[in-house]
Design a protein that fits this description.
Helices cover 81% and strands 0% of the residues. It folds into 2 domains: 148 residues, Serine Threonine Protein Phosphatase 5, Tetratricopeptide repeat (Alpha Horseshoe), CATH 1.25.40; 57 residues, no CATH class. By secondary structure, it is mainly alpha-helical.
């Protein structure tokens, strides 16, 4: 009888647990978007540092889920971008570890966002001896992300941006235009507007 009561309690708690994760995840996503797209650059480093602390606690509460790890990787990588310099290299290495851990749990989580974020890291981080940048790995990860989410705003933006960096502007335009046509994501209006603006600027540059 005791085992039955424990089992029933666990089943009842599952939706609440999932709802808590979703609520926290939405909060992290919204804070990130506000920092990335609305906060002055001079204030971004401190804001991302504070968000990174909160995301670390988020990961600790849901150790068997990929979503918190994905967002830890995203926050750490953008924190690194705001920080800049050699001090950012440790942050991007931590971001890579988080994203690889997420892939090991669930590669399809958040529409393959771990692949998208890893791909973006591999083409934006310097190569050896300073960093781990690798264009071949970047292409592979970004293509995997698109295979999972072919209409995704982030997957298309980063592959388009990567192709520009690789000297393939005509191919890049196809993906960047898809960013402008990508469907809105619930609760992600600030992030979507910011990403579309980035895509417009990249298209206008070519």
């Amino acid at each position: 009888m005791k085992w039955l009561i424990v089992m029933m309690a666990w089943v009842i708690a599952m939706p609440l647990w999932a709802a808590d994760l979703e609520t926290e995840l939405n909060g992290i996503q919204q804070r990130w978007a506000e920092i990335q797209y609305r906060l002055p650059e001079t204030k971004q480093e401190k804001a991302f540092a504070d968000l990174a602390v909160d995301v670390e606690a988020f990961v600790a509460r849901y150790r068997d889920r990929a979503e918190p790890l994905i967002w830890e990787g995203i926050v750490l990588s953008t924190y690194a971008g705001a920080k800049g310099g050699l001090g950012a290299l440790g942050l991007v290495k931590d971001a890579r570890r988080s994203l690889e851990a997420a892939l090991a749990i669930d590669a399809d989580a958040l529409d393959g966002s771990a692949y998208t974020s890893l791909g973006s890291l591999y083409y934006q981080v310097p190569g050896w001896p300073l960093g781990f940048g690798d264009d071949d790995k970047a292409r592979s990860y970004l293509q995997k992300a698109l295979a999972i989410n072919p209409d995704g705003i982030d997957a298309n933006y980063f592959f388009g941006d990567f192709l520009l960096e690789q000297g393939e502007p005509e191919r890049a335009k196809t993906y960047l235009r898809k960013v402008l046509e990508a469907p809105d994501r619930p609760g992600r209006s600030v992030a979507d507007a910011g990403r579309r603006e980035q895509a417009k600027k990249r298209l206008e540059a070519y």
